[in-house]
Design brief:
Alpha-Beta Plaits, 50% helix, Malonyl-Coenzyme A Acyl Carrier Protein, domain 2, alpha/beta
Length: 314
């Protein structure tokens, strides 16, 4: 999908958002204005045998918040954005990366995974994660204003686990509901600027997701993965992966382990990336990247206007 036709002076990384970036009506303008985007929505509908496009355009906030729905919906919109943008000229990144769910979108962009397979796989991932959340109830919270070492110390006392290292001063923790409540209280007493419970259905990227592992391993074993055409900076290691076996290992490992987003961005910058393009609904990753490094250029592709603006910037 991402190919070699155009070389830009800036070294580019394409990044793809994860769960939490969904919004009612996402992708509708692109569906109306771009044949390529419309084809992506129709392909997703066919792959899932139900209209995920209608859920994106007309679903309620509660429907879109459900893990089983939000994951395929966000992936579909992200690929629709990418295809619409590439109709104006191929983007050639030196890396791709995605935050949690977004790693599956990155695989599609790097031609390591067929789009139809990816939509079905993340629908199953969402179902398994939602079920794991029921089997082992838990939650997540963002800790704002404490460094990683301080949050780690809090987690050691409460039994929570760091789930996302998003940027300096923004770390997400996972655990049982009781554990998260204790962690939020203790973090505040240790000087956190704020603590924010997240509206998710489970303790993602923690051992509480173990019930989803067997089913996910089975689902992954039935999919034909290829080696990525563009290196993917992996969530769990913040290092590039380039083979299909590494991809499969990463997708299983990230279910129960921390998303190393800040180290991933720092790795790409150190490797020469000067422009990041967030492709998909929202600007969550764009904000995080700007907090990680203020010197890089950050662009966003989420609708027809942002595609025009990004194309002009490049």
């Amino acid at each position: 999908m991402i190919g070699p036709e155009i070389n830009f002076i800036d070294k580019i990384a394409c990044v793809f958002p994860g769960q939490g970036s969904q919004v009612v009506g996402m992708g509708y303008e692109l569906y109306q204005s771009s044949r390529e985007a419309r084809d992506a929505f129709e392909e997703a509908d066919e792959a899932l045998q139900f209209p995920i496009s209608r859920l994106c355009f007309e679903g309620t906030e509660d429907e879109l918040r459900e893990t089983i729905n939000s994951q395929p919906a966000i992936l579909t919109v992200s690929i629709a954005c990418l295809r619409a943008a590439e109709s104006n000229g191929t983007i050639r990144p030196i890396f791709v990366a995605g935050h949690s769910l977004g790693e599956y979108t990155a695989l599609v962009a790097a031609n390591a995974l067929e789009f139809g397979d990816a939509v079905r796989l993340v629908r199953e991932r969402g179902r398994l994660m939602q079920e794991a959340g029921k089997a082992k109830p838990g939650g997540m919270a963002a800790i704002i204003g404490l460094d990683e070492e301080s949050v780690e110390e809090v987690c050691m006392e409460t039994g929570a686990q760091i789930a996302n290292i998003n940027c300096s001063g923004q770390i997400v923790v996972s655990g049982t509901k009781e554990t998260i409540a204790r962690t939020m209280d203790l973090a505040q007493s240790r000087g956190a600027v704020s603590v924010v419970p997240l509206g998710v259905s489970g303790a993602f990227h923690s051992p509480l997701m173990q019930p989803a592992l067997e089913g996910m391993a089975q689902a992954i074993s039935q999919i034909d993965f290829r080696s990525p055409e563009v290196p993917i900076v992996a969530n769990c290691t913040a290092q590039p992966i380039t083979t299909s076996d590494e991809v499969k290992d990463e997708l299983l490992h990230q279910l129960c382990h921390c998303v190393q987003w800040q180290p991933s961005v720092e790795y790409m910058v150190e490797a020469g990336v000067s422009t990041f393009i967030e492709i998909g609904p929202g600007i969550v990753l764009s904000k995080l990247i700007k907090r990680i490094n203020r010197q890089v250029q950050v662009l966003n592709i989420s609708d027809p206007e942002s595609i025009k603006a990004t194309t002009a910037s490049l």
